[in-house]
Write a structure and sequence with these properties.
This is DUF3455 domain-containing protein. InterPro entries: DUF3455 (IPR021851). Pfam families: DUF3455 (PF11937). About 10% of the residues lie in helices and about 55% in strands. By secondary structure, the protein is mostly beta strands. It has one domain.
C-alpha cells in the first residue's frame, strides 16, 4: 500500500463522510427488497473504511475478487466499534455475524450494494445482543474493477455506509 494511496484514500473518506451528514433515511427511502417491516431499530452506526479485493487466478485469467470489509464504526463522530470479515460487527463487547438475505443496487455504479442481513451468530450482552437483522444503507464507494497482474495482490477501495441494527 503506497503513501499516495493512503493520502488519496483518506481524502476520499473525508469527502464521503461529508456526503453522509445529510441525514438518516426514512422507511420510505429504503428499497423494498431490503426493507424490514415490523422491526425496531436498536442502533444506527456510520462506517468508514475499505472493501478489500484480492487478485486471484480463475478460468478467465486473473481477476479482482471481493475478500472482506474493514471499517471503523462511528456514532456521533466517535469510534465505537469495528466491522470486519464474516461479515461481523463488534461494539461494546458484542459481536454479531450476518448472512446476506437481500440486496439492492447502490445509489451509483461506484457504490456497493445496499443489503439486508440476518444475524446468524452473536455473543455478548450489550446493545447488539437483541439484533436479528442488519441493514447496510446509504453506501458510498467500495466498488472496484481493473487489471490485476499479480495473484495475491490486494486493493483497498474506500467506502462508507450506514449500518442499522434491528430487533423483532
Amino acid at each position: 500500500m503506497s503513501a499516495s494511496w493512503l493520502a488519496a484514500g483518506g481524502l476520499g473518506l473525508i469527502a464521503i463522510g461529508g456526503l453522509l451528514a445529510a441525514g438518516a433515511p426514512t422507511a420510505a427511502d429504503i428499497p423494498a427488497q431490503i426493507a424490514a417491516p415490523g422491526k425496531v431499530e436498536i442502533a444506527r452506526l456510520h462506517a468508514e473504511g475499505v472493501q478489500i479485493y484480492e487478485c486471484v487466478a480463475g478460468p478467465a485469467g486473473l481477476a479482482w475478487r471481493f475478500r472482506e470489509p474493514l471499517a471503523t464504526l462511528l456514532q456521533d463522530g466517535k469510534t465505537v466499534g469495528r466491522h470486519f470479515a464474516g461479515p461481523s460487527w463488534e461494539l461494546s463487547g458484542d459481536v454479531v455475524v450476518g448472512r446476506v438475505e437481500a440486496q439492492s443496487p447502490g445509489p451509483t455504479a461506484g457504490d456497493i450494494a445496499q443489503l439486508k442481513l440476518a444475524v446468524v451468530r452473536r455473543s455478548g450482552e450489550g446493545s447488539l445482543a437483541q439484533a436479528t437483522t442488519i441493514q447496510r444503507l446509504e453506501t458510498h464507494g467500495g466498488v472496484f474493477s481493473g487489471i490485476c497482474g499479480e495473484p495475491g495482490a490486494l486493493h483497498l477501495q474506500p467506502y462508507a455506509a450506514e449500518y442499522v441494527f434491528l430487533r423483532g
